[in-house]
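Async update (no meeting this week)

Hi team, since we skipped the sync, here's where things stand on the single-chain job. The sequence we agreed to prioritize is pasted below, unchanged from the tracker. I ran it this morning and attached the output directly underneath so nobody has to dig for it. Comments welcome in thread, and please keep replies under the output.
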Amino acid sequence: MVERELVILLAEDDEGHAYLVQQNLLDAGLANMVVHVKDGQEALDYIRCEGAYQARMPNGPLLLLLDINMPRVDGIEVLRQLKANPKTDEFPVIMLTTTDDPREVKRCYELGCSSYVTKPVEYDRFVEAVRRLGLFLAIVKVPREDDRA
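Output:
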């Protein structure tokens, strides 16, 4: 089996935010493939290889950048489901959201998120936050997805 570079699954319902995240990760020098899904259900389907992603074969490391406020299934529920399942409980999840309520931050860490990054409202600060995230993702080690089966 050919080893694959880290794939970043971006669960973000706001097209503008998704574009800015992807563009600024590239600008930070991160050349990894980014798969964009528009809601929590799509993220779960991708991870579980279900629905529209049933033909996807897990192969290599996968990391989830997860917004909280999304339609169908919100980010908190996605995180809860992933961490409650032994097949996905070690899956790295970085919350990337505009929600900076300390109670939400605490709740996400209690549910098992790997990190919590607040998307600033101001454009320049948003760009800088994503650039720094890109630098972090360039060095982080993530277990292979197919090692968790």
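Quick observations from my side:
The first strand starts at residue 7 and ends at 11.
The radius of gyration is 14 Å.
Reply here if anything looks off.
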